[in-house]
């Protein structure tokens, strides 16, 4: 026998190695059979033999090298042992029957994507936020991104991604609602890493990001027929998979779905005042009482616009019987601002798509999406109050 090509990492390929390699083929239950003897007419070239083994075993080049190097070593040392051979073949065969999936990022895609000013990636496209809002959240979260996930950890080797990319990845999931198997390909990490980041950062974002709040002095535009109105109220549904146990708490018969109910209160310009999350079996009236907004409205002199699903003296609903058609049309036009705000919030696909996470993670993500939506609506209101008064 003579030497094999140097690119395969083996300097000598003994004739005694061939039966061992062919024995490995039979141990993997292949239907191929090769018989090699010393005659020239049946002798297969060494390079051709290696290529055939690659095709038959469907091994990666690294595993083939390991196999050849092992047999070359035990033959050169005179330690050919059937038990050792069977043990090694069992190890190789286990990986072949259950092949591992390796995730390789492209050469031009670095693991840490660098600074926020990198033009290769659009912050608004991935998170729904402009750079000013994203930097504001990053400055709040940076102390928590620098410390280990587990409190009191003695040793910490750090994370695969830097602080900026970790936050970007979590907000990207809320924006796109991609599955972990897709996110791991984008950021070149494992699914378990993505899951750990979600369980660590979502509760912190839930506690630290607070832009939804009632204004101290809400604006009360003077609109004929709607004096004292400060905003609008409506409920929406965020669908999810069935929960067990307790699925009946998330199910409502008229929708035939499992979901989380969200009651949203906005000003007449679209800024979000309050978001209350409840179980899916609650309707609009139930959420109005459950949120405590009923008692809050009765303590003041303010009014809210609502649809026909509500009924309360502090809520102005359409009244087709006692009010003229123009009044009902104006009521619907003013009330539509809350529906537009909800529709804008659902551009974060976490709110719109059917969610398969646990209710805990699902609810945290819903509230964070509404907080980010409130940040953007505070900077870019849906309507101008002055225009509303003039047009009414």
User: Which segments are poorly predicted (pLDDT under 50) over 5 or more consecutive residues?
Assistant: 1-44, 92-107, 113-117
Counting DSSP H or I runs of 4 or more residues, the number of helices is 15
| Rg, Å, rounded | 32 Å
Quaternary state of this entry equals single chain
Strand composition percent: 5-15%
The coarse overall form would be elongated
Could you estimate the helical fraction of the residues in percent?
40-55%
Question: Whole-Å distance between the termini?
Answer: 97 Å
Pairing-aware structural class of the strands and helices?
Answer: alpha/beta
Q: Largest sheet at a glance?
A: 6 strands, mixed
Mean pLDDT: 76
Give the number of DSSP strands: 6
